[in-house]
Amino acid sequence: MIIIELFGVPRIRAGTGRVALEAATLGEALRALSKSCPGLEGPVLRGGSVHPAYRISLNGDRFVTDPATALSDGDSLLLLGADVGG
Structure pTM? Predict the structure, then answer.
């Protein structure tokens, strides 16, 4: 199970701050998130990728962009605006 935590605009558009789903790659996770929270598609998500105004952190350690990035059970993705953190 992958946990995706949403902050700022993504949280507002999704109507939730946390989504749990099954995915083996970042691209699969983003496509599943888009289906689970359709309000994200377009403004935040675009198919299996994220709009340039947003960033995804894997386990709070590093930012990831490659849809082929492998995910493991228990991984956490943070979806936030690129301007977060000053």
Answer: 0.91
pLDDT surpassing 90 at residue 44: yes
DSSP assignment letter at 12: H
Burial of 48 (0-12, 13-18, 19+ CB in 10 A): middle
What residue ranges do the domains of the chain occupy?
A: 2-81
For the domain covering 2-81, report its CATH number: 3.10.20.30
Query: Tokens at residue 65, please?
Result: 């962009």
Q: Which amino acid is at 85?
A: G
- C-beta separation of 24 from 71 below 8 A: yes
pLDDT, one tens digit per residue, over 70-80 is: 999 999 999 99
